[in-house]
Amino acid sequence: MNLKVVVIAGASGFIGTYFQRRFREMGTEVRIIGRGTAVTWGDTEGIAGLLDDADMLINLAGRTVNCRYYKTNADAIFSSRTETTAELGRALAACRKSGGRPPSLWINSSTGTIYRHAQDRPQTEDDGELGSGFSVAVAKAWEAAQSQSVVDGVRQVALRIAIVLGPGGGVMRPFVTLAKLGLGGPMGLGSQMFSWIHVEDLFRSVLHIYGDTSLHGPINAAAPEAVTNQALMSSVREALGMRVGVPSPRWLLEFGAVVIRTETELVLKSRWVEPRKLVDSGFTFQHGTLKEALTDITGRDA
To answer: Is the pTM of this model over 0.70?
Structure first.
């Protein structure tokens, strides 16, 4: 694949760090936008220069949602996604206007949480039903900020990412820790669906989207096998060789969420996301089942 230059915005987190390493292993030049780098947010002209002659822009910027949704945190979660996306749109337009060559593909992060609490059927890009509440409002505004920034010759993809699993980071660490402590039972009722994707397959899906120019708009980034929370925790225990896992009832999760300053939505919302566009376009998953993903993760991280 002839991918010479990639620009990544918000590259300091688990996904961004992984992407940087994998692109560089391919021999691709990686340019970074964000705090602590030569080109930071607010420098639209500098961002436009960074985008010139790049092949792809990937935006991963956004404050973590692993916090309590108090007003200060909620405002930061919202603005860190919508304002950075809008600025990238302005920078792409400025790059084009100045006679530069902006990237042909702009992949902007979104989230599988945009869909409703679903336990009856999977949600695809075509027939998925959007939900309600704070997290969904953020996701809608996030995608709108991108779609309102149309630049000639720049294909847009809103990547609706499921829970990302991978060695050394993502959400697997707390699940593994709980299981090792004997607390790896189902959370709440345990019947809520858990859609996920291995970080390597997330990276590979980005390459696939770049190579298939027919793909655009919202694309679900999730493994084809969604599981219940009960099955998830059972698989985690099995991968670690832990026989016993004490369940966590909702009241205990609510109490624990306050103590560790997070929200129970992260584990209690039923996310059932189907990667219809990826599968129909011929993408194949390297870690298509949770067992395969956990074997890879615990084999290197547990």
So the answer is: yes
